[in-house]
Write a structure and sequence with these properties.
Blueprint (H helix, E strand, L loop, with lengths): L1 H32 L11 E6 L4 E7 L4 E6 L3 E7 L16 E7 L3 E2 L3 H10 L7 E12 L6 E11 L2 E13 L5 E10 L9 E2 L4 E2 L3 E12 L8
Antiparallel strand pairs: 1-4, 1-13, 2-3, 2-13, 3-6, 4-5, 5-7, 7-8, 8-9, 9-10, 10-13, 11-12
Length: 228
């Protein structure tokens, strides 16, 4: 009987130790699979200003001569990680959080009143005040440091008609630590139900194909601190 009394406590001790071991194992597993806190893991995001040296021009041709229309004002909404302004090797298209462009039709200037009126009429300015682009994807290729080549896709809205487009651009950090973006986009105006303007009862006809050329210098926008 003495041996029996000594045996039962040992079995109980073994069960307790087994339970403690299982609890420890579950605790370690939970710690492993628990997601790490997000605080401090992601780079701060910044928006940009477009410098005064930037330009956006629409170029076309007619049976009489070539022509240009300048966007005298436009808004670019571009949000990227703060470290994009430090080193281009950190750039990745998947890090772009926002890329939108808005061009007021009223601010398209061809240098002549008649041309501006014809352009606004063709773009149905009374109903559609803006030309708008919204990005969908961006991929970047190129050397680890230096100029990058971007392929961008998204939706372009002209005269109330939206079409999917793709275009390419060159991007780099300049000596001032700003992002320089250069490129062009080919546009067929008839894709947006825009009839190319005509003059002299149709004797002068504008080509349906235009090219949007841009050269943008993007500066980091200083945002007010949370304490302000």
């Amino acid at each position: 009987m003495g041996n029996g009394k000594n045996f039962k406590p040992k079995q109980a001790d073994g069960l307790v130790q087994m339970k403690l071991l299982l609890i420890s194992m579950f605790g370690i597993a939970a710690a492993i699979i628990q997601p790490a806190p997000a605080t401090g893991q992601q780079a701060d995001s910044v928006q940009v200003n477009v410098s005064d040296d930037s330009f956006l021009i629409i170029k076309g041709s007619s049976t009489l001569h070539n022509w240009e229309v300048e966007a005298t004002s436009f808004q670019l909404f571009f949000t990227v990680p703060d470290d994009w302004f430090l080193n281009s090797s950190a750039w990745s298209g998947s890090e772009v959080q926002l890329l939108e462009l808005e061009v007021p039709v009223a601010d398209l200037d061809g240098g002549r009143g008649k041309m501006n009126r014809d352009l606004r009429e063709a773009l149905r300015f009374d109903e559609h005040k803006q030309i708008r682009f919204v990005w969908d994807t961006m991929t970047l290729t190129g050397p680890e440091a230096g100029r990058k080549h971007a392929k961008v896709s998204g939706s372009l809205t002209i005269a109330g008609v939206t079409r999917e487009i793709s275009f390419e651009a060159d991007m780099a950090l300049n000596r001032d630590g700003n992002i320089r973006v250069e490129g062009s986009v080919d546009i067929d105006m008839t894709d947006y139900n825009v009839d190319p303007p005509k003059a002299l009862f149709g004797a002068i006809r504008t080509s349906k194909d235009v090219v949007l050329e841009y050269d943008l210098e993007l500066e980091k926008k200083d945002l007010p601190s949370a304490s302000q």
